[in-house]
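> example.struct
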């Protein structure tokens, strides 16, 4: 259903009275990812809830309706040389970048988190409809915020299980005047020491991402582990100094890049066959196609153990993109490798155990039909999560079968 803004509250009240199962939905680009929804569940789209309510360039804040596409917000901000400091969501080439409400509800981040933190740290206020249709608000419109329950953080990563987000107040940032991407390939040990030095240095890169060798190969590069470094500054001179400081720390060659994030780099490799690094030979066609991967996983690993994870046989053959500073990222099967990566539910459980041994966790976002691996393991805080769920959604109508941190809700 796609109600318009003034029909929405009545619709939610009606669904509550009838006890109908429903799920909040943005543009529906990734509604199927994660734990499957149980039974008949009505998607309630926020497409009719779109547009920028107010942009205050002087205060660096913006209020947007939840169904507004991310691109629309970035385009409007770019006119004022501002941006929302978030990555384009993974898979944007195939599925689009989705809505702001979906971005917040999923609470996932990419490599820009290294410098700008996650979406939850950029959210200063939220408006929502609870399961019974009651409208609620938290936070404010200004960066210096009011006190009260921090519903912003609760709804980040709620996956549509607690209520429907209607409006978001976010902080914006000035666009960096100059950016430079650098790509370094070498052994895990060489890259590990460069990464450790960079994280402890005063250079504050915008991002520092590890790529597995198969991901590098799929982008038409040498099949070897890779570090993607993004630098930003207000002057070209300072960028040169930063690059020289990095070059002084490693014998490995630094290659300048035409783009600084994974989605743009892969798009570049695909669009005209040009490899992402400037001056590199063209991709050989074995690179990532626009086909959906059979498996898509979200990983978290203690940051200093990322090189160990990349060397583990459990992760062999997978495309992996992990942020060096947080240890968070994605792994997926490459269509070219298809079933030869041999990822099946049994290996997936080994992989989950590996992540846990390395201080982290694994979430299954996408899996082949019929494999039925739980998207999440039970979190230690499961009883608390369930209590919160009962408070917000007493009839358990919202997103049945899908509650982050609970294996089988
Ligand atoms: C670097 C990066 C990587 C990402 N990778 C992934 C990924 O691999 N998989 C993934 O699923 N997401 C990923 N995301 C999150 C991604 O941004 C969202 O999935 C996307 O924005 C969904 O937008 P949509 O409007 O199509 O939402 P939909 O696909 O319609 O919904 C996505 C989820 O959000 C909920 N939702 C949507 N709108 C609302 C609302 N108004 N109120 C309450 N809940 C709502 C839905 O119930 C559903 O659980 C990533 C984000 C970043 C920054």
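> example.seq
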């Amino acid at each position: 259903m796609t109600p318009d803004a003034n029909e929405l509250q009545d619709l939610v009240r009606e669904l509550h009275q009838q006890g109908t199962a429903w799920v909040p939905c943005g543009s529906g680009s990734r509604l199927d990812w994660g734990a499957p929804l149980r039974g008949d569940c009505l998607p309630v789209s926020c497409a009719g809830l779109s547009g920028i309510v107010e942009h205050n360039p002087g205060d660096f804040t913006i209020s947007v309706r939840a169904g507004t596409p991310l691109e629309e917000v970035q385009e409007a901000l770019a006119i004022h040389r501002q941006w929302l400091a978030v990555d384009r969501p993974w898979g944007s080439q195939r599925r689009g970048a989705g809505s702001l409400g979906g971005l917040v509800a999923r609470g996932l981040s990419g490599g820009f988190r290294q410098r700008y933190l996650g979406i939850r740290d950029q959210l200063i206020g939220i408006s929502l409809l609870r399961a019974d249709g009651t409208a609620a608000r938290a936070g404010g419109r200004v960066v210096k915020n009011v006190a009260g329950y921090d519903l912003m953080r609760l709804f980040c990563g709620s996956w549509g299980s607690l209520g429907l987000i209607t409006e978001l107040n976010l902080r914006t940032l000035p666009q960096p005047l100059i950016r430079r991407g650098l790509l370094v390939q070498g052994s895990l040990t060489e890259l590990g020491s460069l990464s450790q030095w960079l994280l402890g240095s005063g250079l504050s890169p915008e991002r520092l991402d590890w790529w597995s060798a198969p991901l590098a190969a799929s982008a038409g590069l040498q099949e070897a582990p890779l570090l993607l470094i993004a630098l930003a500054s207000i002057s070209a001179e300072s960028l040169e100094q930063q690059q020289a400081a990095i070059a002084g720390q490693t014998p490995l060659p630094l290659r300048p890049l035409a783009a600084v994030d994974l989605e743009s780099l892969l798009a570049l490799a695909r669009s005209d066959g040009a490899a992402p690094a400037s001056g590199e030979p063209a991709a050989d066609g074995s690179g990532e196609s626009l086909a959906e991967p059979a498996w898509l996983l979200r990983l978290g690993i203690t940051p200093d153990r990322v090189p160990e994870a990349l060397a583990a046989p459990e992760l062999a053959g997978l495309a992996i993109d992990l942020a060096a500073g947080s240890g968070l990222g994605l792994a997926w099967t490459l269509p070219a490798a298809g079933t030869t990566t041999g990822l099946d539910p049994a290996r997936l459980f080994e992989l989950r155990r590996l992540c846990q041994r390395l201080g982290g966790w694994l979430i299954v976002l996408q899996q082949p039909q019929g494999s039925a691996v739980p998207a999440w393991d039970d979190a230690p805080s499961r009883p608390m999560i369930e209590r919160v769920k009962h408070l917000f959604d007493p009839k358990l109508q919202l997103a049945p079968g899908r509650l982050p941190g609970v294996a089988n809700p």
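> remarks
The CA atoms of residues 7 and 29 lie 23 Å apart.
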